[in-house]
Each structure stands twice: as C-alpha cells, then as structure tokens.
C-alpha cells in the first residue's frame, strides 16, 4: 500500500468515513513500511471488531471489496480456506468485507481466482465444492467472481443464471464438462 499511496493511486479522498485516511488493524512488512507508518497521521489503527464490521464498512459509499478464493461451485459457494478437508488459511475479513460492500451504497464485491490449478489440469470452478470444503462466503453473499476469462455476476441471479455465468468464466477446456455436470444437478 505504501507505494500506491505515495504514487497517488490511493488517496482515500472519495471515502465517506475516515476521508483521507488509510484504516487498518495491523501491519506487517519491511522497515520501510514501519518507517512510513511511524507517526503518520494519514494512517489510523483500529480494532478488528471496528475495521471488519460490515456496518462500519458500509458507511463508505461505493465501497469495493476484493478477495481471493481457492474454489467456487456452480451454486456460487466460495471456499477460501481449504481444498476439501485440507486446511490452508483462515477466512480473515473476507465475509465481513463482502457483506460491507453489499450494504454500501453503490458498493461491489469481487472474489478473484485463476480459473485453474495444478498447471491447468484442474478447474477451480466445480459443480460442487470438494467434500469437506469450508464455505467461507455463502452463495447468498457473493456478488461477482472474477477469473482471467471475465466477471461472473452472481448477485441477483437465479441458480441457473449463476451456473451459466460461472461456466462462462471457467477455463474453456472445462466448460463443456461443467455444463454437463450442471445438467445433472438441475442447474441447466
């Protein structure tokens, strides 16, 4: 963030709450990052319960949340913590920021991922999540899923529209199989 702030890409001038301030709950980085943060009136530290509160987040109009995930199913359920029962990470603030963006006037939430894993051999968009996968973000909260093939709008869509939109941003070599699998679970 330091580089983005210093080059003017991040100004915080459009924020409705904490205008001109970068808000965080913790920082981790190099000596340069710590030197930047030291006595910087443009950065405020607050508790996690405040920073990650969807009601606080939503006070910033046009709030955009950007998160990542490991896998998404054709219903729109997002797994960001595990592949099946193999745990990789915590949720962090993903659910809070997704919900805050949805509540924000004009807000949007984007969850991005590469369309494949294992060198292109495995699709990260699947008919269902792997058995035992942790659902990090409910299908009811997901706004958009982004891959290198585009943006799948899910919010406000029927289950069948969601599946079609997700198949459209899957890697092309998996689309036909995903459509076939979607038909088996009544999503086509």
UniProtKB/TrEMBL annotation:
Enzyme nomenclature, EC number: 2.8.3.-
Matches recorded under SUPFAM superfamilies: NagB/RpiA/CoA transferase-like
Keyword set, alphabetical order: Transferase
Gene Ontology terms, MF aspect: acetate CoA-transferase activity
This protein's record includes keyword Transferase: yes
Class of this enzyme: transferase
InterPro entries according to UniProt: AcetylCoA_hyd_C, AcetylCoA_hyd_C_sf, ActCoA_hydro, NagB/RpiA_transferase-like
Biological process terms in GO annotation: acetate metabolic process
Stretches assigned to the Acetyl-CoA hydrolase/transferase C-terminal domain: 29-181
Protein's UniProt name: Butanoate coenzyme A-transferase
Natural source organism: bioreactor metagenome
């Amino acid at each position: 963030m330091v580089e983005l702030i210093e080059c003017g890409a991040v100004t915080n001038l459009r924020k409705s709450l904490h205008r001109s301030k970068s808000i965080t709950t913790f920082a981790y980085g190099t000596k340069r990052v710590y030197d930047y943060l030291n006595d910087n009136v443009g950065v405020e530290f607050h508790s996690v319960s405040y920073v990650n509160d969807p009601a606080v987040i939503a006070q910033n109009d046009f709030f955009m949340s950007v998160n990542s995930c490991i896998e998404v199913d054709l219903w729109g359920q997002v797994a960001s913590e595990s592949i099946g029962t193999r745990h990789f990470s915590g949720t962090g603030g993903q659910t809070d920021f997704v919900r805050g963006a949805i509540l924000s006037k004009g807000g949007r939430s984007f969850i991005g991922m590469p369309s494949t894993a294992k060198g292109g051999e495995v699709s990260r968009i699947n008919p269902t999540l792997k058995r035992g996968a942790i659902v990090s973000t409910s299908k009811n909260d997901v706004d958009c899923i982004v891959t290198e093939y585009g943006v799948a709008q899910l919010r406000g869509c029927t289950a069948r529209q969601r599946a079609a939109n997700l198949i459209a941003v899957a890697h092309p070599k998996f689309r036909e199989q995903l459509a076939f699998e979607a038909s088996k679970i009544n999503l086509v």
